[in-house]
Amino acid sequence: MLALGGAYGVTSYLVSQRTREFGIRLALGARTVDVARAVIRGSVPVVVTGIIVGLGLSVVLGRRMGDLLFAVVPHDPVVLGVASAILLVFAAATNAVPALRAARVDPIKTLRAE
User: Fold this and answer.
1) What is each CA distance from 30 to 7, 8, 22, 35, 63, in whole angstroms?
2) How many domains does the chain have?
3) What is the model's pLDDT at position 41?
4) Which of 6, 9, 15, 59 has its CA at a distance of 20 to 30 angstroms from the CA of residue 45?
5) Is residue 96 over pLDDT 80?
6) Which domain holds residue 94?
7) φ/ψ (deg, to 5) at 106
8) SS3 29
9) What are the pLDDT digits (tens) for 54-66?
10) Is-contact 47 88, C-beta < 8 A?
């Protein structure tokens, strides 16, 4: 939940910083789908990198903490795969909200703000 909240917060902040850019793109004829794709393309690599780093750390630290665990395999590939897939799906869903907000930017209001 913390990772999802962080992904949403960072993406939302970056979208608010790029509002003028999205307004200009829309004013010049970009489709709303293209603007939403630009936001998703910027956030997916960060989420995938986080998943890869997290998997690596869980395998390394799981081996070190294996003596402390009882009746649990510290690096079960099924559990790690399912957890990663769930995180990726929910991260895409949380990043879709700022992407849709960026796609709905009113170009006229954005250009008048400066």
Assistant:
1) 26, 24, 9, 7, 50
2) 1
3) 87
4) 59
5) yes
6) 2-112
7) -85, 115
8) coil
9) 899 988 888 888 7
10) yes
